[in-house]
Amino acid sequence: MAIKRTLHDGVKDRLTPLTTLDPDKIGDFDELLTAMGRTAFGGRSLGEALDVLQAMVEDPDCVVVGTFSGAMTVAKQSKLLIKMIDEGWLDVVVSTGALMAHGFIESIGLKHFKYEPARMNDKDLFEAGYNRVYDTLEPEANFAQAELVVREVMHQLMDVDKVTHLSSELICKAIGKHLSEKYNGPGILKSAYKKGVPVYIPAFTDSELALDVACSILAKDFGHLLGEKGPEALPFQFNPFLDLFSYSKKMYGAKKMAIFTIGGGVPRNWAQQIGPFFDVMSDRLERDLPERRFTYAIRICPEPVHWGGLSGCTYQEGISWGKFVPPAEGGQFAEVHADATMAWPILIKGLQDRLAKKAKKPATKKPAAKKPAAKK
């Protein structure tokens, strides 16, 4: 016997209707993303991400953390990150070392090139000094020039300033200062330095920047590598806990927290572990510390969840770790499963258009209060 169903009316049930995307009614990226947010699949996710991004950057109580991985700078997306820093949309940056290294190379005027598989092969590229990153080439000569700049920075830190303890934040700040003083043009570390935005590279030694720092040390005394010298003989000590404590101190004072993520990897998880870290300190050290949970979150990453890797970890899963405010309690999340080189530029242009129109819109005047009627 067939089950008799009661067929409901979506309008009467107050369901949200979808709207057909009409290109003739779209005049800018804000309108495009708004229209996409009323459709389905990845388009809806990206459209909804604009609403979350606007909410996080306009919330005066919110500290916004940006985490970045993947080859975004060699893919020529640097100015998107620079724009977010310059506009005050990011308060903290957490990144892979490679992303910052490629961006640093770009900021001193060097170029990346297009890989053309029809007339190139990797063995010949190696012999010619071209490092391939997917469909892009990074000349080895770029790294050689960048190392000379880093050596100048390290000379200032080691020999002039006599710094004894360093972290990725302090090295990135010193490079940003050097770029501001010596080079024209845009740069991620340059903008971060000027805006007072800390840049953390949790896996610092996994980067060309770290190799340059190492070369700066070995240029003074190669015995640190092959000799009998212990760590106490190094010109400075590199301490990753300086980064962890600096970041934790900044997030301790945040009334709300937001995270904007490109890709995944170490930057994402290092930034997100702030919630569990505060919980651990409260429980194990018997300290009365506030809960740290991200209220807003956006992730642009093609990694699906079913591979089981952390880069595909959903925000819903992160709630179980004490990293995010549940949606039922006000959490606003957007997960965009897409190539960031396609989704990120559209999202940033959408926010620019939306905020520009909002700034031009005249403030709504309150109606004048009615005067009390004269007494007879």
Distance between the termini: 79 Å
Give the uncertain stretches in residue-range form.
Answer: none
- Roughly what percent helix? 40-55%
Helix-strand string: HHEHEHEHEEHEHHEHHEHEHHEHEH
Describe the structure.
The protein has 376 residues and is of the alpha/beta class. It has helices at 29-36, 41-58, 78-86, 97-107, 122-128, 140-160, 168-182, 188-195, 208-220, 223-226, 240-252, 265-272, 274-284, 315-319, 340-360, and strands spanning 62-68, 92-95, 113-114, 130-133, 136-139, 165-166, 199-200, 237-238, 256-262, 294-300, 332-336. It has a six-stranded parallel β-sheet, with helices on both faces. The longest helix is centred in the middle third of the chain and has 21 residues, at 140-160. The model has no long low-confidence stretch (mean pLDDT 92).
Q: What's this, in brief?
A:
This protein is α/β, with parallel strands linked by helices. It contains 15 helices and eleven strands.
Any key phrases for this structure?
three-stranded antiparallel β-sheet; 376 residues; single chain; alpha/beta; 12% strand
